[in-house]
Amino acid sequence: MIRKMTRNDLERIDELEQELFTSAWPKEEYIYEMEQNPFSNVYVVEEDGEIIGYFDYWILYEQAQIATIGTNKAYQKKGYGQMMLDYIIEDVNQNGCEVITLEVRVSNEKAIRLYEKNGFIKVNIRKNYYSDNHEDAYLMVKPLGGTSI
Description:
This protein is α+β, with helices and mostly antiparallel strands. It has one domain (2-143): Aminopeptidase (3-Layer(aba) Sandwich), CATH 3.40.630.30. Helix content is 30%, strand content 34%. It is built from four helices and seven strands; from the N terminus they run E-H-H-E-E-E-H-E-H-E-E. A seven-stranded mixed beta sheet has the order 1-2-3-4-5-7-6, sandwiched between helices. Strand 2 (40-47) and strand 3 (50-60) form a beta hairpin. The chain is globular, with a radius of gyration of 15 Å. The two termini are 28 Å apart. The relative contact order is 0.14.
């Protein structure tokens, strides 16, 4: 089940962030995303009451950006990443977006394969993008139809 993230989810989200990312977002960033960022859409994926994934994307008028997406390691390779990406793509299409962008570590081959399978293309490299180890990121873009609302 996909549902909106709440403050009650933040302890588990923080645990997952620490497990999944070397440059984890602090809880305060998620509070900002949920309560102050008017462009943000923050969700969790739950199975049997357990949060196994989460994602955040921004709809910025005619474009969307995936800010983060993560799946509990025990649930990876089971289709949850695809489910979250499908949800995002459907929503941004319904909102008339023309393009979705994201940044991904150049070393994150699993994520890159998922994005490419879904029509994202590498368009640029952001040098020293990640503050933890100065790794580069690919800027990836997925063109969409775009419609007027």
